[in-house]
Design brief:
The chain is of the alpha/beta class and 200 residues long. It has six helices and twelve strands.
């Protein structure tokens, strides 16, 4: 079975893709998310093989989200977009494939055929590691989701319950990003096995 996670802020778009995928015997939809913060957590927990990911989402775009995923557990990325084929060229290096909205069943079949072929050859992602530095860390806490700018981060700690980010003001929030991702994509320095600190 190919495990699929659908990420799109438009409920109707998620429903349309779900209906198309449910007709496939070897596809299992393991989850749906309406934003990138939810999706990062779902990727870590559900370990999907394929991520159908909308590019244009509020706060954190699909492209930004790809850079936040742990490269060792990154699924195949199929971008969903309303952009035309000329504009999409800029995204191709980040993606296994892309689908133009509204999604056509025949075009989706081509993508699924390629995925099946690729998985039969190897069970690793084709995506290159994106080393672009993160400008902010998505956090949850104080009953809201917020983006903490890197300049405002004091330190990050890993505990049994997850990874927590403490701001320079002493406020703490939970993040779905791993310590490994934060160490490789931010200026934070590892001072201990479970701590990263901002030395700036």
């Amino acid at each position: 079975m190919i495990k699929v996670l659908i990420v799109d802020d438009e409920p109707l778009a998620r429903e349309n893709l779900r209906i198309l995928l449910q007709g496939q015997d070897d596809i299992e939809i393991v989850g749906e998310c309406a934003n990138a913060v939810e999706a990062i957590g779902a990727v870590h927990k559900l370990r999907p093989d394929v991520l159908f990911l909308d590019i244009q989402m509020p706060r954190i775009s699909g492209l930004e989200m790809v850079g936040m995923l742990d490269p060792e557990h990154r699924p195949y990325i199929v971008f969903l977009t309303a952009f035309d084929e000329y504009a999409i060229k800029a995204f191709e290096e980040h993606a296994f494939d892309y689908l133009l909205k509204p999604i056509e069943e025949k075009r989706l079949e081509k993508t699924l055929h390629r995925l099946r072929q690729e998985r039969s050859k190897q069970d690793v992602s084709l995506l290159p590691e994106n080393q672009q530095a993160l400008k902010f860390i998505p956090c949850t806490g104080h009953s809201r989701i917020y983006l903490l700018q890197m300049d405002d981060v004091a330190f990050v700690s890993s505990r049994m319950s997850g990874v927590y980010v403490t701001s320079s003001e002493g406020k703490e929030g939970f993040t779905e990003l791993t310590l490994r991702t934060l160490e490789s994509r931010t200026p934070l320095l590892r001072c201990h096995r479970q701590f990263l600190v901002n030395m700036a």
